[in-house]
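User: Earlier you gave me the apo prediction for this protein. Now I'd like the version with pyridoxal-5'-phosphate bound, so I can compare the two side by side. Same sequence as before, with the ligand SMILES added.
Assistant: Got it. Here's the input I'm using:
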Amino acid sequence: MSTLLDENTTHTLREGAFGHARALACRECGHEVALGPSYACPECFGPLEVAYDFPTVTREEIAAGPANIWRYKALLPVPSDIEQSPNTEPGFTRLLEAKNLARELGIDRLWVKDDSTNPTNSFKDRVVACALSAARELDAKVFACPSTGNLANAVAAAGARAGMKTVVFIPSNLEQPKQVNSAVYTDRLVAVDGNYDDVNKLASEIAGEEEGWAFVNVNVRPFYAEGSKTLGYEIAEQLGWRLPDQVVIPVASGSQLTKVDKAFRELVALGLVEDKPYRIFGAQATGCSPVSVAYKAGTDAIRPVKPDTIAKSLAIGNPADGIYVLDVCRRSGGAVEDITDDEVRDAIVLLARTEGIFTETAGGTTVGVLKKLVETGQLDTSLETVVINTGHGLKTLDAVSDRVGAAATIAPSYDAFVAANIV
Ligand SMILES: *Cc1c(COP(=O)(O)O)cnc(C)c1O
Ligand SMILES: [Zn+2]
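And here is the structure of the complex with pyridoxal-5'-phosphate:
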């Protein structure tokens, strides 16, 4: 495993570099290691997760913070002066009540947490902001990631703002808008002839060979992953400091889903919200649904797949946190479900036409799965439900460009307009 803290230099961690984080703890055996660029347990190879000694935190202190994720800095592995370092300041995105979509689907109360309005138009800005802080504190020389698209956009933008050398690796068949959305921020976009799992393997190899690289979702993954908790904190705060009954969340690696659950449990433990049961549902596209397949088979054994779906931002065939997604969804009384690419396209248009929100294929997957959960009786329509929209439709225009378009092309005359019979 690479060390960011070059043994030949004198860089030492400054006091409070990771806020109130205490250690990295193994999810499997609980073994703790010192905070640093580690991601696998030295005892059992289980994934490491940030553990804290939280201070007392009040709703008022949080509300007095900035309108971005740093309002929750006391609950994240970041220093208390985090706002002084250039970053993209993501988060505190809108939580919209979706009355039209609720009526269409037959749900009593429905909200859309709209993360498409983040700085690079996906939820990835949250995790990257936390990873950037860790990379800085660990004195990393290069900021990098393997990506299915959105992560590369977020890393490239944050790296530019931080003035760091930034390298992003993507599958070469990625949608053009996502490629441009990265390349505009950095000269070091590397297109790899392979799928995401190939790109990820290459990144792990580089992390092992090179000194000083912070791969946001590889060797600083525990810090990166904590950023997703802010989605859960915001949903609770924006509902007036209470938990929803049901949440539907897309699953790629599965990190986001498990961290929203972690966020809810932390808020309860800190006394910031009242404890109550909630159900968490995972959404995948059928063309890459290893977690959904395992859920339906009633097994913990997730069989890796070769992705074949338009939901490229969810196309991780071997999801690192898949097994924990199964645990959260089963334990909470939720489920994991998947839909076809055609249903993804339908759902993108449905959300746009009912709520004026243009989502990418990942959001289409999530809204489409919400619809399917209602139709199959897996979701309780009398309970308050939140669906998370994680990305913006302008990044995946091709998904719906055949379905929508001009109602008519006419000459610039009133007669032609009337003849076209539009309204
Ligand atoms: C990465 C991504 C996800 C899923 O993230 P995981 O934490 O890996 O499950 C969901 N939606 C969008 C748009 C993404 O880019
Ligand atoms: Zn372990």
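For your comparison, keep in mind: The longest helix spans residues 255-269.
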